[in-house]
Amino acid sequence: MAEQRNGTVNDGDPETEENNNSNKNNNNIDDNNKNKSSDPELFCCLLQPATADGDPDYIGIRRLLLHRKAEAGIVRRRDWRCNGRTYVAYRNYICRPRNWESTHVRSLQTTPGNSGRWIPSPSPLSRWSEVDSWSSSRDVQSGNPASNHRTSFGSSASDSDRPRHRGVEPAYSFVGMHCIFDQCRASVTVLKFGHMSSDLLAYGASDGTLTVCTVSEKPSVIKQLNGHSKDVTDFDFSSNNQYIASSSLDKTVRVWEIAKGICIRVIYGVSSQLCIRFHPVNNNFLSVGNANKEINVFNFSTGRIINKSVFDSEVTSMDHDHAGHLIFCGDAQGYIYSVNMNSHTGVLSRSHRYRSSSRHKSPVTTMQYRSFSLLAGGPVLLTCTQDGNLSFFSVAMEIKGYLTLRCSLKLAPRIHKIQASFCPLLSLEKGEFIVTGSEDSNVYFYDLTRPRHTCVNKLQGHRFPVTAISWNHGENFLASSDFYGVVIVWKRERTNGNNNI
């Protein structure tokens, strides 16, 4: 019988083997007890002090039941997330059909991690567990070209509308989630990709933080920018993506240098700063809308005001045209303004105001300009108000940005500030597609030209109201954020023909 002098293990001794097995079992039991004690509900109950008028029997029975109850849902969700799974995967797992085990095929393993998890392209069966996306809703229609004459019609839709399955729609099909950023502990208020960039992403939150990320093959957080004391209301990248200018409810505008992660300039105001944009041609100009019914043009280098223009109400959103000659802005009463801007001097002059026919005045949450649309045959403007009105305008550049309503869509009223965005422009499509978040935690795609059945796709993955939406430059990634700080980057499906990404 062989002996090991430096240890206590004797090879071939049955008593020793039995002791070793019992020690292993005890260790496993201890590990299980540790896992069970990590239940947050039980932990909180044990730490909760007993009140003077509390019933000790009730407290004891409650602790006993909590100790014996099934594992808390938050612990199960945490286990799924540590394995690279998603919220919707957990939801589909607990709601799975009875014969699911026999029909389920193991999907590809994902890379674990806490934030910026990379989820590779799943197999067809594993797509069901990762994202519930109605990716096919209608055929590519081959109708008559869109007419150029200006018409206006309205339609209504609900956030719970289910898309009609009439064929494959390759343009808005998604293979699932590319990555998830969930380190933020507050509501994400604004979300944007960098200019002419396919992988640089930033988002601001209600706790005053700005997070800069990369969504490349190894998604990660690049910089955390801390300085604002209240909600980040808006931000914008400079044209070379070296700087970020942000506005906040703390009445300040801050300019950040991304590479160093530092604030290089603070501009103090007298009211909340609500929206901000760099001039697309002259990045030395910074336009800021505030709660004092103004748009101020600042000199980026010195921080001094060059010019300002006064409006009828708080300026809640804005956007430039591609040449920087016009600023389109919306206020808290739902009015939309076209403002001329001199690219050399920064002087502003109001030219047109569009007044909605709606009796209810609601703040404009989205203002997005696009230089061309098949429907309008020229530049267009998308606006969204907090009460759920989506409007699509053609822009007459020769008449200093005069707006003509082409079509509109009425959604359910919102409580939160929810944003919308144009969808990628497709050469074969005759409609006008937009994507928007919703308070039922879904991402919806709409065709604004349809009086009925306007919803063409729907993405499910968030658990809370989706507040912000953004496409990257290559338009192969769509980022969405929700009220509890989770940012999901969705990956579009690659297609053939004219719809290549």
From TrEMBL:
GO terms for cellular component: nucleus. SUPFAM superfamilies: WD40 repeat-like. Keywords: Repeat, WD repeat. The keyword ATP-binding does not apply. The keyword Repeat applies. PROSITE patterns: WD_REPEATS_1 (PS00678), WD_REPEATS_2 (PS50082), WD_REPEATS_REGION (PS50294). Residues 1-34, 136-165 are annotated as: Disordered. WD repeats lie at residues 225-266, 459-491. InterPro entries: WD40/YVTN_repeat-like_dom_sf, WD40_repeat_CS, WD40_repeat_dom_sf, WD40_rpt, WD_repeat-ST_regulator. Residues 19-30 have a biased composition (Low complexity). GO terms for molecular function: promoter-specific chromatin binding. Residues 141-158 have a biased composition (Polar residues). It comes from the Eukaryota. This is Anaphase-promoting complex subunit 4 WD40 domain-containing protein. It comes from Lupinus angustifolius (Narrow-leaved blue lupine).
